[in-house]
Specification:
Distance between the termini: 52 Å
Strand content: 5-15%
CATH class of the largest domain: Alpha Beta
Largest sheet: 8 strands, mixed
């Protein structure tokens, strides 16, 4: 029977495919597809984890004091029995063999199946046994995670693996939420859409889905409970509706809409290598945001004229204590620089904290991350300055990569003038260390992210020390409006059109232009066509976005006259409803 699930539309378009569920777990685990040659390895990992947990439970039984309640020993027996039950470990092997899930994902998927079975039992005592299964699975997951701390090496044919088990059917991802590290891995796979139980318009999943131009619905509440593995889904990213097992008529209607959307994308694609020049002859730089070196090829293919943001923190995630050293980082940065064939690459130093914590962070830091507002804690440059050895290591790696092409360094979340001196000292020390070691490097420009209102207000002072600035609109909006963009209860108040946000944007762009410093926008607004004309009117000539958004933004640039747009800027900025004021101005332009 067809049902509808309603959520928040965050990325336009239609996706149709079979559901692939990622079950939520109290243990943070990685989810990825494995190649055929890795299947037996994953099964061996599962078997080793089961044996280790069994040995641990047997040890606990042996160490029980004589006066211990009999129920405690009985409980351990129940957990041992569940551990060896075919409905748990046997079925988990099936997920690995048939779906090519890694062991952790397979175990989480089977837990979700068993949990639903227990929930549907009429006997209250049996229903309560679900907690025992959850505890056993949690032990297994912890053992799997601790025994394999290094980043999982995704097989080169992981995408093909997913297609193999899906046949010709497209896939859509359904989850309670998707962690940033999982989004990084899933985007290299075959998912054509996303559905999550939680999240708002500005959650990490929403931003990534929108930037990738993949239809997505978030905040769908009960989606992962109502949708079952392999259900056919239609994701309506325009209306925020997920249709589960649609009727043939509904399915055909959405397939028609999907074909129309594909035709529009193909038309835009033809613009990808056309220079981005406005009607009045203003060249505009359209750059790409990337996470890993392998993304550079896609950036070039999309028509990017450089990388405006290389998010280096993704090299550090899911690594436990095994963080990348200087040589590993250097090789990653060098590969990206070489792949861009002489075009500039802007590498942001590690931006951890908030929604991207590192496992390596101390227990005190993690308590603060979970107990207080992580967006206001030890993150980005604050964290790097608290780890001076690691910071200099990263700076050395970036400098070494500059010997292979044009490289710029970008420092995230600079908010204090007092941070400038230690940043410059760290860079000078890194250069000196390379000189002493006889390592080659070239000149690099140094830039700062404008993500905090303090930096925007004092932009002229910051620009005395930096060669360029890049505006991270996602955080700038969050901090300006005191809105935690990950908090669903206030996410509706997150407003990129807020007059205060626009004033800070305009002030930063105008000041950088007047001082002859480079300025770009690398946040979500850069890839949103609703803001293209406004940013051009403000004097912005450098946009950085996900490669999938470049053609759509280029089309708006090619149709814009910056002189006409600038004439409407004062009126838009003075309005209490800037979006409406801009719409009226654009309608008036087309009317003439």
């Amino acid at each position: 029977m067809s049902i509808q699930v309603f959520g928040i539309p965050v990325s336009r378009g239609v996706a149709i495919g079979r559901a692939v569920l990622v079950a939520s777990s109290r243990v943070d685990v990685a989810h990825y597809f494995v190649g055929v040659e890795r299947v037996e390895h994953e099964i061996a990992r599962l078997r080793d984890a089961r044996d280790a947990v069994a040995a641990e439970l047997e040890g606990l039984k042996r160490e029980l004091p004589p006066e211990a309640p009999h129920e405690l020993a009985a409980l351990l027996d129940v957990h041992l029995m569940l551990l060896h039950d075919e409905s748990l470990t046997g079925a988990t092997k099936g997920w690995i063999r048939e779906r090519h899930y890694n062991a952790e994902w397979a175990l989480s998927a089977q837990l979700e199946v068993l949990a639903r079975q227990f929930d549907e039992m009429e006997d209250a005592y049996l229903r309560e046994r679900k907690a025992d299964v959850e505890q056993v699975v949690e032990r297994l997951l912890r053992e799997l995670v601790t025994s394999s701390r290094a980043t999982p090496s995704l097989p080169t044919q992981a995408t093909q693996t997913a297609r193999d088990f899906a046949g010709e059917d497209p896939l859509v991802l359904v989850a309670n939420d998707v962690a940033p590290a999982d989004m990084l891995q899933f985007k290299r796979s075959v998912f054509t859409g996303f559905v999550t139980d939680v999240g708002g318009r500005t959650s990490h999943t929403a931003i990534v889905a929108h930037s990738m131009d993949i239809p997505a619905v978030v905040g769908a509440r009960e989606a992962s409970r109502l949708i079952r593995q392999d259900d056919w889904l239609v994701i309506d990213g325009d209306a925020g509706v997920v249709i589960v097992n649609p009727s043939p008529i509904v399915l055909e209607e959405y397939r028609f809409r999907q074909r129309q959307s594909d035709l529009e994308r193909a038309r835009l694609n033809r613009l990808r290598h056309t220079p981005a020049i406005t009607l009045d002859g203003q060249p505009v730089e359209l750059l790409a945001n990337i996470e890993l070196p392998g993304d550079a090829a896609g950036a070039l293919e999309a028509g990017a004229v450089g990388v405006g943001l290389f998010r280096s923190e993704f090299l550090f995630m899911n690594r436990g204590d095994d963080l990348p050293g200087e040589d590993e980082q250097f090789e990653a940065y060098r590969d990206a620089v070489v792949a861009m064939k002489g075009l500039p690459v802007t590498i942001r130093t590690v931006d951890v904290g908030a929604d991207k914590p590192l496992e390596r962070m101390s227990q005190q830091e993690l308590r603060h991350e979970h107990g207080l507002n992580p967006a206001l804690g030890l993150r980005a440059i604050r964290w790097s300055l608290s780890e001076p050895g690691m910071f200099r290591q990263q700076l050395r790696a970036i400098l070494r990569a500059s010997a292979y092409g044009k490289v710029r360094i970008l420092i995230p979340m600079v908010a204090q003038l007092g941070e400038v001196k230690p940043i410059l000292e760290a860079l000078a020390r890194a250069r000196q260390q390379l000189d002493d070691a006889g390592r080659a490097y070239d000149r690099v420009e140094l830039g700062a992210m404008v993500e905090v209102p303090a930096a925007a207000v004092l932009i002229a002072r910051f620009l005395r020390h930096f060669d360029f600035v890049s505006i991270g609109t996602n955080d700038l909006i969050q901090y300006t409006l005191a809105i935690d963009r990950a908090d669903e209860s206030v996410a509706h108040l997150y407003d990129p059109w807020h007059p205060a946000v626009l004033q800070l944007l305009h002030q930063t762009i105008a000041c950088a232009n007047s001082m002859g410093r480079g300025v770009s926008v690398c946040g979500e607004m850069a890839g949103d066509t609703a803001f293209t004309e406004l940013l051009l009117a403000m004097g912005l000539r450098s946009f950085s976005m996900h490669p999938a958004r470049i053609s759509a933004i280029k089309q708006r640039v090619l149709r814009s006259d910056t002189r006409q747009l600038a004439g409407h800027l004062e009126q838009v900025l003075a309005s209490d409803t800037p979006a409406q004021a801009l719409s009226r101005a654009l309608l008036g332009r087309f009317a003439h």
